[in-house]
Amino acid sequence: MAGTRHLANGAWEALLSAHAGLIREFAAEPIWQDASMREYDVLYTLSKCEGPLRLGELNRNVLLSQPALSRMVDRLVERGLIERKADPADRRGVLLSLTEAGREVQREIGRRHARSVARALTADLSPAELGELEIICRKLVSRSAANHGK
């Protein structure tokens, strides 16, 4: 048990270190003129959804606190990248979705970011290792989603 715990903690530390290093590398890329990395995360999350999201649903899928996300959404609405509409099922609720301008900003940054990600990951990982990494990460996402009712 202690050996497994040691392996798990070592893997966790390596995962966090890899994530931090890659985020620093991506943040330094000259691709974020139209939106910050965090703003892009919000735009990307909304782009993956089949329909509008409530703020709480969006918050479960981004790495921001609820107050920080609320302020960011306000700024993105002001810039015309996100649209707010009353929830027809609950008039007190608000639904968020991308505007056409928001969709275009997300696509443009997304293309540049995808090239950065591919360049960074293929520099050190073989195609087989990339496949293994995806399988492992999807297992962790599935476990987390199951534990949080997603």
Which properties best describe this structure?
150 residues; mainly alpha; Arc Repressor Mutant, subunit A; 3-stranded antiparallel sheet; 6 helices; globular
Question: What would you note in describing this structure?
Answer:
By secondary structure, the chain is mainly alpha-helical. It has six helices and three strands, in the order H-H-E-H-H-E-E-H-H. The protein has a single domain, classed as Orthogonal Bundle (Arc Repressor Mutant, subunit A), CATH 1.10.10.10. The chain has a three-stranded antiparallel β-sheet with strand order 1-3-2. Strand 2 and strand 3 form a beta hairpin. The model has no long low-confidence stretch (mean pLDDT 91).
CATH architecture descriptor text: Orthogonal Bundle
How many individual helices? 6
Say how many strands there are. 3
Please provide the ordered H/E string of secondary-structure elements: HHEHHEEHH
How many domain modules? 1
N- to C-terminal separation?
A: 30 Å
User: Widest sheet: strand order?
Assistant: 1-3-2
What is the name of the CATH topology? Arc Repressor Mutant, subunit A
> Runs with pLDDT <50, length 5+?
none
Structural class: mainly alpha
CATH superfamily (homologous) name: Winged helix-like DNA-binding domain superfamily/Winged helix DNA-binding domain
What is this structure's SSE topology?
Layout: H1 2-27, H2 37-48, E1 53-54, H3 55-59, H4 66-78, E2 82-87, E3 90-98, H5 100-124, H6 127-147
Antiparallel strand pairs: 1-3, 2-3
Helix pairs in contact: 2-5
